[in-house]
Known about the structure:
The structure holds two protein chains of two kinds.
Chain A: H1 2-37, H2 57-64, H3 67-98, H4 104-113, H5 119-132, H6 139-164, H7 167-176, H8 180-191, H9 193-209, H10 212-217, H11 225-231, H12 240-269
Helix pairs in contact in A: 1-12, 2-12, 3-6, 3-9, 3-11, 4-6, 6-9, 7-8, 9-12
Chain B: E1 4-15, E2 18-29, E3 33-37, H1 44-52, E4 59-64, E5 67-68, E6 79-82, H2 94-104, H3 109-122, H4 138-151, E7 156-160, H5 168-185, E8 188-193, H6 196-202, E9 205-210, E10 213-218, H7 220-225, H8 230-236, E11 241-251, E12 254-259, E13 266-269, H9 270-273, H10 278-282, E14 288-294, E15 298-300, E16 309-321, E17 324-331, E18 334-341, E19 353-358, E20 364-367
Parallel strand pairs in B: 3-8, 3-9, 6-7, 7-8
Antiparallel strand pairs in B: 1-2, 1-4, 4-5, 9-10, 11-12, 11-14, 12-13, 14-20, 15-19, 16-17, 16-19, 17-18
Helix pairs in contact in B: 2-3, 2-4, 3-4
Amino acid sequence: MKNVILLYKIKRTLRTVLLILIVIIYLSPLYWIFTTAFKSRAEMFSNIFTISKFTLENFEEASRYGAFEAIKNSIIVTVGGVILALILSVFAAYAFSRFPVKGKNILMFYILSTRMMPPIALVIPIFIMFQKIGLKGTYAGLILMYATISLPFSIWMIKSFIDDIPRDVDQAALLDGHSLSYILFKIIIPMVMPGIIASMVFAAITIWNEFVFALLLSSLDTRPTSVLLSSIRGERGFNWGRIAAIEVVYILPIIIFVFLVQKHLLRGLTFGTVRR
Amino acid sequence: MTKYSLELINITKYYKGKKVLDHINIKVKQGEMLTLLGPPGSGKTTLLKIIAGLERQDQGNVMINGEIVDDEPPYKRKVSMVFETLALYPHLTVFENIASPLIAAKKTKSEIRKRVEEVASLLKIRHLLERKADKLSGGERQRVALARALVKEADIYLFDEPFINLDAKIRTTLRTEFKKLKEALKKTMVFSTPDPLEALALSDNIAIIFNGKIVQYGSPLEIYNNPLNIGIARYITGNILNELYAIVEEINGEIVLNVKGFGQSKTLTVKDMVPEYVDLMDNYIGHEIIIANKANYCYLVHGKSCEGLVLEAEILGFENHGSEILLYVKAGNNVLRLFTSKEDIKYGDIGKKVNVCIDIAKSTFFDKSTGLIIR
């Protein structure tokens, strides 16, 4: 009996140690970024893991290099892309879930299959297309591109949430005398809110972090942070302090965002939690 | 000419190539309550949805108040419905749920409040009005669904197995309340249920549906006393029906039933037992028939005299049904079930020999080869 308890305690301790190790591995780059961003240039390589004097000089420099414009651009294209994707995917998901769409299964597969292609394979034709119709280098172009990228996942996710609502709910509302738009906006959408928020978070993270399309389709005025980061370079090699400072402002908004919606996100990620 | 609230004429519906409703003809009078009684999957829900206009029949017509409404959308049909899944709006409050049909009808705020509170009082859920619909118990949800259906001014109210997912106690309470409600409202209602007891207790008329076909239509009493075939008889008694097999024979000019399955032969003289059947049984000489005996017309013989068939039996076991005991006994090759009082039986009695009386006069007879009632 004693041995069993001892064994259990050892196992539990080992598990805890392992978890702590994993957390350290995941968080150490973040720790490095945050400390480096506040370090002076002189201290950069002498103390790798500690910091003796806080300074904001890296942020001042980052701002001179256009970090805040880039963040602004990132926010514009992310918010724009997410909103456009959500509007379209809610309508598409509702239609796919509730109406007899011809070739529904093929269409749904086709929509998903666009996710399977490597984005880099599409970049050249899209680049040429955007240049021809004057969308290259504009916010509108980037927003359109990002909405397109986010649509498949959002449609699938929101559709699966709507599928979970029994048809009887729609039919009850029809019998009550409500119109289809009332049913969609006042009944279906509020019921699938966790799903909408979860797909919104996924879309936002994907767009915020995207690099390939941003690099080719943006101009100097519209380039988002991911592009700026790759182009930052000091006179003598990389200026890590400056890069870390930009990274800090790049990471913070998405962390805050996820933190704010995490309650809904958890419900959204465990599919099928819509209560009847 | 009688005016009907609802007429279904030759309604037929296919689902994925399978016929789920087969030439359904039903007429429901103003203020009448009709129950569609049938096992799960027999097509009751589909029929109700066709009446409501939520599904379209492949053949036939739906008439409401004497007019064909096949092309009318649901909201124009003056039909209200309680769904089997209840279909409440979980993100809205009870008040908003009940008010939904009134909001759609663009009633004024004060009128909506008045009507919702009226119906809520009727169903005893006034204290729940501000609560979210997903924070209710099963019975409460049921009441909200009923309230939402009743608040709508409709000509026909449809109830699709409304009490089916409730536990027995709440079910009985709601059933009693529903009966009162029905008598107070005097509305035309179509109710569906797989539970024969519920149908017998609540309805003015019952239509029994098996596999999309109406197999019998009539008042609860008619159906209970004269089930058209053995299948209906089994179903309507909730499968507690004692069935004995017998051959109709003529011995010395008397028609007798030779009951099988007891080793030595047991003969019953038709003239003595069921004199009204003498002429009828004449047509069945040589045929095998089923003597169907409801469990409440089968009893233990002790002291009481038996005006039927006495069988020696052995107690197999029993179920406590509250005030009564459902007793299982084995007589010959047959397992019989009968209701008896609690005083008659105790745990040690299993295996004990008893005498059982089958009341032949209260039994129903069926032709074994066709399954049809003999009458």
